[in-house]
Amino acid sequence: MSEWTIESTVDELLRRERERTDGGRITDRWPGLDLETAYRAQDALLARKQRAGERVVGVKLGLTSEAKQRRMGIDSPLTGWLTDAMVLPVGEPVRMDEMIHPRVEPEIVFTMGRRLAGPEVTVEQALDAVATVHAGFEVIDSRYRDFSFALPDVVADNASSCRFTVSAESFAPDGLDLVGEICQLSVDGDLVDTATGSAVQGHPAQALALAANDLARRGLAIEAGWTVLTGGLTDAVFVEPGRTISAAFTTLGSLALTGKR
Ligand code: OOG
Ligand code: MG
Asked: For all residues of the chain together, what is the average pLDDT?
């Protein structure tokens, strides 16, 4: 490919997803891919998925915790789209044959009772628009080799999104201590990581406000009924066939996922 464009970037990322193959950074080949152009590519990628019949069901935040930022070497949060095709029902295995190199991370998830439009949304306003809070898992599957990317690369790649699971147990935001909520992550029963809700931008609703304000720059809002993944609390764990990854939260309940070849 000689000249890289938004459309050729989308073609390449969708090809990798379809063929379940990773590849090099787009920014190595297209140094002109800046953040704004990358979000335009992300929106163009979503438009392709919508033309193929997928429906937007929410939005995700990525790199909202220090654990994730440190691991990925990027210190700035980002947003991506969630579609109905990404829903992984509770208890279903992670079908690795549909993916490249999936990793799982525990997240605090909001479902929205009201529309939330930026700019200048505060934590209080954000929390006020939330209907229910849940424990969740995100399965990320970067279309880049070794999950190695610069910020514009991962933005164009819809923030590595692949699947997500939301616990059926739901909680009203009032009366929850989301800052102090503890999440213990285990692999095959062995505790591997622990974090509290404060890991996510100081408060998961701060991440929600950030998403609303970020979308406002693109003339968009978080809609009533949408699901919002606020970002991995801990580092992500690779899925392996037969490996069970579980998360136990103080009040939000427990969830487990198992990899299947
Ligand atoms: C980017 C997506 C990060 C999170 O929750 O921090 C993300 C990646 O790590 O591949 O979803
Ligand atoms: Mg995530």
From this structure: 97
pLDDT tens, 42-88?
Answer: 999 999 999 999 999 999 999 999 999 999 999 999 999 999 999 99
Residue 189 has φ and ψ, to the nearest 5°, of 85, -10
* CA-nearest residue, atom 7 of ligand 1: 62
Domains of the chain: 6-260 (3.90.850.10)
Model pTM above 0.85: yes
Beta carbons of 141 and 99 less than 8 angstroms apart = yes
Q: Which of 140, 154, 163, 234 has the most ligand 1 atoms within 8 A of CB, as the residue to mutate? A: 140
Q: Which atom of ligand 1 is nearest to the CA of 60?
A: 11
* Element (DSSP H or E) covering residue 207: helix 204-216
On the 0-12 / 13-18 / 19+ scale of CB atoms within 10 A, 101 is middle
Is 77 a pocket residue for ligand 1 (Cβ < 6 Å)? no
3-state secondary structure (DSSP) of residue 124: helix
72 lines ligand 1 (CB under 6 A): yes
Rounded CA-CA distance 20/11 in Å is 14
Tokens, residue 168: 């059926």
What is the per-residue pLDDT across 162-174, written as a single tens digit (0 to 9) for each?
A: 999 999 999 999 9
